[in-house]
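One such shown below:
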Amino acid sequence: MYAVSSSDSLVDRMAEHAPQFKGYGESENRRASDKIARETWGKELRFSIEVLSKQLNANSRLEESKKQVAQTVIRKLNLLVEAFGQSAGDTPLFRAKDLDEGDIEAIVTLDLNLLTRSTAIKEKAIRTSREIASSPSWDNEVDELYNKIKDLDETWKRRGRLISTIGT
């Protein structure tokens, strides 16, 4: 089982940089850790939506097909923000009294991936918003952004599968 005092564990090392991860080792703090993580990812994506929406609204001469692509990206981001806002419910992650360190490392690893991917999306949204929408590079930026969103969505789904079976 996971020992919070283990100074060399991955969770302890990660908690030095992101304190919310320490809570996964303590059954009474798991929900709070989960909520903080989901709020952090949502914040990154909401910023991305804001940046892209501003560009879309400011660019009245944007071709209809490009507007549709941008709107699709924004819709997909909104769906993820909505998903991040929902509690995982009564899953084994929250019911288990003790989790072994491997289970905790697995959830922390996925959470770090989600943080990294949501931050990468924010950075890509900023770069995309700086491109002139009529240039060919804008199309490439939007394609890359959409691929990052798909990767984030798949990581979110993997996390959902993990927390529904963790500790069982």
Remarks:
- Residues 1-7 have pLDDT under 50 and may be disordered.
- Residues 101-130 form the longest helix (30 residues).
- The domain at 18-165 is CATH 1.20.120 (Four Helix Bundle (Hemerythrin (Met), subunit A)).
